[in-house]
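Bench log, entry 3. Co-assembly request; chain sequences pasted below exactly as received.
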Amino acid sequence: DGGITQSPKYLFRKEGQNVTLSCEQNLNHDAMYWYRQDPGQGLRLIYYSQIVNDFQKGDIAEGYSVSREKKESFPLTVTSAQKNPTAFYLCASRLAGDTQYFGPGTRLTVL
Amino acid sequence: AQSVAQPEDQVNVAEGNPLTVKCTYSVSGNPYLFWYVQYPNRGLQFLLKYITGDNLVKGSYGFEAEFNKSQTSFHLKKPSALVSDSALYFCAVRDASGTYKYIFGTGTRLKVLA
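Structure output for the full assembly:
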């Protein structure tokens, strides 16, 4: 899991609540990514950011929002508009090369 | 459209036997291919990658992968499986459009039996 931390490890959300997942890296990587993992579906890209103050939607951005105010941090907010948010969320970062490095993940459960 | 396929949901192999986890890809241009491993409730760990050069790529923990351009495959191999290799394995390809997006397969669960 290297120098990428995600918190919390487990998160519970009530219906209608927004929640924010934290992702921090001390690898000095420029690019950061958020993925959602569901059983049998692999990883699906939510948002990614190549540089500070810039980010792009991935394949399943609806119901999610992000910010990239600092190089080290890329928080993901799961809004109430996301109808099925229960999943395992993975953050990754990448330097100039092609390899992504992943954090340990946050498991979000809707109560 | 670019894609990655892992045709087997699960692979079972006896400890000490060779293992292969299959991956095929579809991408325009030169492929940038990756293998990752995931243990339960953990993030993905990088195993190896193919960018260019020798078709046989060696990676972490004794794993290697063979790039085959004509068959558009990038199968993961290990000569002698360990019980501790039991995990979920993902193949990925980097999007060739220059966006640095990555496309992941659906994963293959490897079970090594003692």
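Chain A has a mean pLDDT of 93. Chain A is about 0% helix and 50% strand.
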